Amino acid sequence: MVILTENMKEAFSKLMIFPLATASKEGTPNVVPMRFCELRDDETIWFADNFMVKTLANIQENPQVAIYVWGSGTGGCFQIKGNAEVKTEGPDHEKMREWVHSIKPGFPAKSLVIVKITDVFQCSPGSEAGKKLL
């Protein structure tokens, strides 16, 4: 797996909303703004599924996802790609439920989406646009 740099982790920590892109097995794209996103360690990202429909269906058909990291104070932008796994029970699922309910009591916190980072690409405009960073 790929391990994010300190600068990337710092940029990640400044955001509240993360665009999460998925695609069906036929290649139909879908992107949603995700509030419940957490960098669990240098190579793992958690998303809480509260209201996913197409996103969850896509992940079950095609586990490849992309996350766009850009916003005020991030010092640039990059795209994280990874493979997602959905958990609906177990200790990690329970941790996710506690996390969601501590912020938004009453939200369903249906499933945990665990993304293992596989690649990171440059998104800033210029000659390095699209360059693989990790």
**Uncertain segments of ≥5 residues (pLDDT<50)?**
none
Q: Helix tally?
A: 3
Tell me the series of helices and strands, N- to C-terminal.
Answer: HEEEEHEEHE
Give the CA-CA distance, first to last residue: 10 Å
Q: Can you tell me the CATH architecture?
A: Roll
By CATH reckoning, the class would read: Mainly Beta
What is the helix content?
10-25%
Biggest sheet: strands, sense, closure? 7 strands, antiparallel
- Structural class assignment: alpha+beta
How many domains? The number is 1
CATH superfamily heading: Electron Transport, Fmn-binding Protein, Chain A
- The chain-level mean pLDDT equals 95
Number of strands: 7
Rg calculated over all Cα atoms = 15 Å
Strand content: 35-45%
Which word captures the global form?
Answer: globular
Strand order within the widest beta sheet: 2-1-5-6-7-4-3
CATH topology: Pnp Oxidase, Chain A
Structural write-up:
With 134 residues, this protein is α+β, with helices and mostly antiparallel strands. The protein contains 3 helices and 7 strands; from the N terminus they run H-E-E-E-E-H-E-E-H-E. It has a 7-stranded antiparallel β-sheet. The longest helix is centred in the C-terminal third of the chain and has 13 residues. This is Pyridoxine 5'-phosphate oxidase superfamily flavin-nucleotide-binding protein. It holds the Pfam family PNPOx_N.
Gist?
By secondary structure, the chain is α+β, with helices and mostly antiparallel strands. The protein has three helices and seven strands; from the N terminus they run H-E-E-E-E-H-E-E-H-E.
